[in-house]
Known about the structure:
Elements: H1 2-10, H2 18-25, E1 29-33, E2 38-40, E3 48-54, E4 57-62, E5 68-74, E6 79-80, H3 83-88, E7 95-98, E8 102-108, H4 109-118, H5 120-146, H6 149-159, H7 163-166, H8 169-176, H9 180-190
InterPro entries: cNMP-bd_dom (IPR000595), cNMP-bd_dom_sf (IPR018490), RmlC-like_jellyroll (IPR014710)
Protein name: Crp/Fnr family transcriptional regulator
Amino acid sequence: MSLLLKNHIQEIITDLSDEDFDYILGHFVPIKRQKHQFVLQAGDEVKYSYWVVKGCVRSYVTDDAGKEHILQFGMENWWISDYSAYYSKGISDIYISCIEDSELLAITVDNYDKLCRELRSMEHFWAVKSKFGYVALQKRILSLLRNTAEERYNQLLSQYPQLFQRVPKKMIAAYLGVSRETLSRFHARSGVM
């Protein structure tokens, strides 16, 4: 678990010393959850940002009719949380649950801030990660506004083909905002097995 996090950080901070990494790792808490278990529920205090070591999770909300709307998937090397509540130390509006048995490393906002103050390299690391996250979110919003559902399906398939092997089709449909039947038509037309 620790070697994977070290490799992840070293994608951005190439001169990370073993001593600095051991110090960084000491600020994380390992968490294991089984398939279908919650990592976070709406109404919970948001204590952590989670880095997915192993497994697959999803963040979602439900509307008044009980329909699920998936905001994000998280696979290995992805970060996930209710960031609005995380940074404000508030209450979650979203759920995060495990699609597969999952191992996560979690960090509190206090420890996040502490590492940023004490290690400029970690401040840089999280600035880069935040930038990538912001760009991905903006692309998703623009895709929702500009593209047809089938174009969004093809884009997701092209970007993250492994999702289609790991995530049930009903969840892909909830992420794309289409019915399961519509997703099946897209799937048939794409020729993906």
